[in-house]
């Protein structure tokens, strides 16, 4: 069941990439497992999936413990992160997509170094459209955040993430294009190789716009409670 949904989702990504003249291998599928049990992650892992997205710090911590035997599994933290929970994420995540401010960046840097891990790859979450988006730093603050993160030895800046208003494909297209423009103004793909954008409903739009990571939950694991 999960294996079928994963294969269908991968096929959607590959078709969208080909339609855009892109290499399908240039788009990484992050299977968003938040609120689903560790057993669902095991099922997806058995089908070959390695990248998983989580949105809640304690849930990530608990699942990372439960799944510690799966050594090459990678957790991507994609949710809003409070500074006082950064320690769980700095320890358990392979990527953090949702860094949205200076205080959080400094705390993650400190915690990543304290955990004795190699650098923690992060993306800056941008409120690219200034529409009814939930999270992210305003685009105007991003250049200063880029400079800050590059000065922090525990973090490695990999790119940008955004989340458009839900259920509005026209707005999604606008917001994704805005994120690409912002990335271009900051040195392009050479400086910021990753663009995390696209969810179950808008992954084709995101891949057409240049996404390198899509975050897909519902289409793989079904509806959340
Ligand atoms: C939950 C979540 C997703 C997955 O959304 P679906 O619509 O279930 O694919 C992607 N990104 C973020 C930031 C999320 O919180």
Written overview of the protein:
- The protein has ten helices and nine strands.
- The protein has 225 residues and is of the alpha/beta class.
- Strands 1, 2, 3, 4, 5, 6, 7, 8 and 9 form a nine-stranded parallel sheet that branches.
- Strand 3, helix 4 and strand 4 form a beta-alpha-beta unit.
- Helix 3 packs parallel to helix 4.
- It is globular, with a radius of gyration of 16 Å.
- The two termini are 18 Å apart.
- The structure holds pyridoxal-5'-phosphate (PLP).
- The site of pyridoxal-5'-phosphate has 14 residues, from strand 9 and helix 10.
- Pyridoxal-5'-phosphate binds next to strand 9 and helix 10.
List the helices and strands and how they pair.
Layout: H1 2-19, E1 28-32, H2 38-46, E2 51-54, H3 57-66, E3 74-77, H4 86-92, E4 95-99, H5 102-114, E5 120-127, E6 137-138, H6 142-150, E7 155-161, H7 169-185, H8 188-191, E8 194-196, H9 203-209, E9 213-216, H10 218-221
Parallel strand pairs: 1-2, 1-9, 2-3, 3-4, 4-5, 5-6, 5-7, 7-8
Helix pairs in contact: 1-9, 3-4, 4-5
This protein binds pyridoxal-5'-phosphate (PLP).
The site of pyridoxal-5'-phosphate (PLP) has 14 residues, from strand 9 and helix 10.
């Amino acid at each position: 069941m999960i294996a079928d949904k994963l294969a269908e989702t991968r096929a959607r990504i590959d078709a969208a990439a080909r339609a855009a003249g892109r290499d399908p291998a240039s788009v990484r599928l992050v299977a968003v497992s938040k609120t689903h049990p560790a057993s669902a992650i095991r099922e997806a892992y058995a089908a070959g999936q390695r990248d998983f997205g989580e949105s809640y710090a304690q849930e990530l911590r608990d699942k990372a413990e439960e799944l510690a035997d799966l050594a090459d599994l990678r957790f991507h933290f994609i949710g809003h992160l409070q500074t006082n929970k950064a320690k769980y994420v700095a320890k358990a995540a392979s990527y953090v997509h949702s860094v949205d401010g200076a205080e959080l960046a400094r705390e993650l840097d400190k915690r990543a170094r304290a955990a004795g891990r190699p650098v923690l790859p992060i993306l800056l979450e941008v409120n690219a459209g200034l529409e009814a988006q939930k999270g992210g730093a305003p685009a105007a603050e991003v250049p200063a955040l880029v400079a800050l993160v590059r000065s922090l030895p525990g973090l490695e800046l990999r790119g940008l993430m955004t989340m458009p208003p839900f259920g509005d494909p026209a707005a999604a297209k606008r917001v994704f294009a805005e994120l690409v423009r912002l990335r271009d103004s900051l040195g392009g793909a050479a400086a910021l190789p990753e663009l995390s954008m696209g969810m179950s409903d808008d992954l084709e739009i995101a891949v057409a716009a240049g996404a390198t990571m899509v975050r897909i939950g519902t289409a793989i694991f079904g509806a959340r409670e």
